[in-house]
Amino acid sequence: MKLASKIVSILFHPMLMPTIGIYLIFQAGTHVSYMSMDAKRIIYFTVFLSTAILPLSLLPLLYQFKLIKSFNMETARERLFPVFFAGLFYYLGYALLKKMGVPVLIGNFMLVTLLALLLAVGITIFWKISMHMIGIGGVTGAVMALALRYGLDMSGWMVLLFLASGITATARLHLGAHTPAQVYAGFLLGWSVVFGSVLM
């Protein structure tokens, strides 16, 4: 069970959530779904680079300078520097996308993802909120907001996302990474911030 929980934690890692969110936006059937495949590839690459590759590449350096004790970052304080620098990379990705002239929907999604991350930085100073649940909660909120804003039937995706959220929450609790309060708070924070911003 512990191995399965670790696999789930990797599959639904918060650094993968922005890329998954972009994929679901492209699949939703809005105007951005009709962008050329070349344009989509560039967006995918920019988002994945700025929200996953660059933040991950910094971890060995933080470990070398003893700013984190391990790559698991088990305490709230240990997560402060990685999350802060991840926020800088997120902003870089957002700025690049804006410079490319991407549709407002995609730019707004990246901006609100950055906002959720910055809120997490502030909370992390005092409390170890679940970043996994902020991530998947944000994607769930984005899909629900898209469905309401554009009148789309995304019930299938929402069922899958709520199922994935429950599995991820269970995995984080089983690993002892968080308390139930930290898991619930993470999901609600991610969901509410992204849902409210995308719906507007």
Descriptive report:
The chain is mostly helical and 200 residues long. 78% of the residues lie in helices and 0% in strands. The protein has one domain. It has helices at residues 2-11, 17-27, 37-64, 76-100, 104-124, 131-150, 155-174, 180-199. The chain is globular, with a radius of gyration of 16 Å. The chain crosses the membrane at residues 6-26, 42-65, 80-97, 104-127, 133-150, 157-175, 181-199. This is PAP2 superfamily protein. Keywords: Membrane, Transmembrane, Transmembrane helix.
Structural topology:
Blueprint: H1 2-11, H2 17-27, H3 37-64, H4 76-100, H5 104-124, H6 131-150, H7 155-174, H8 180-199
Helix pairs in contact: 1-7, 2-3, 2-5, 2-6, 3-4, 4-5, 5-6, 5-8, 6-7, 6-8, 7-8
Keywords: Membrane, Transmembrane, Transmembrane helix
Protein name: PAP2 superfamily protein
Transmembrane segments: 6-26, 42-65, 80-97, 104-127, 133-150, 157-175, 181-199
